[in-house]
Amino acid sequence: MHHLLQLTAGSSVEGIDGLEALLGAAGLAYLPVSEATAWAQAGVDWERMSEIPTGLLWWPGQENEDILTLAQARGIECQSVAEFLHKLWKDELVFSLPEPYVLLNGRPLLWHLLQAGGFEPSLLWPGLDKTWIGERGPGLCWVVPEAWLNAAGAASLGRRAAAVEGYWEAGVEELAFYRSKFQFLGFLERWPQPLLEHKACAEIVQALEYGVSWADIKRALRSWGLEVRRARWDMDDTGPGTGTGGEELPASPAYDLENRRAG
Q1: Residue 235: how many CB atoms within 10 A of its CB?
Q2: Claim: this prediction has a pTM higher than 0.70
């Protein structure tokens, strides 16, 4: 049977356009939010409706008792957006990114790194023109804004990405990355946007922990030369160099680089 979803929320509700982009990316048919109001009108001839929904989704704070009663009387499944997302993503990994965002060409850095590593991630993101991007990749992970998940009432769902526990250290001119306390990976020059450097490093480490190789990360960063200053490709990435002091990094979450600079 053809599955058709009906959304219940005002068209101006912040985040509802993100849900529509997600449904489109997932290949699910839905009726625009504006059509839900007709359900509450007296005398609706259900038998003459060209498209009768089989499921109803309501956005937090947008529940309409009249609409829910009519839908339930017709045997239509009613669920919150949070319940729907739990089912949709129950077997997938959700990378929930908090603000501020590190963007390259309007897309989050982490998505680019996962793509470079061959993980073919899916993306739900507000584009530069405020039109939501909804793309379903063949991989098993999604990159979404944390603020949108919170607005949808789904702050915790599916398989969540593990907390970042990577290692990096900032020198005067470069960043040194480590896979563990004892395995040095290589150098990158300092991030061109100082206020976003901590976030950029955290997402690089998160990509490494998910399985993206250091070679893929370097290759990706090299291709974005306009956004990221040249990495030290001439370095023999076999051990710490100038700016790291060769010190062993503790087994703790990644450094707060802004605090280190201030010190």
Answers
A1: 15
A2: yes
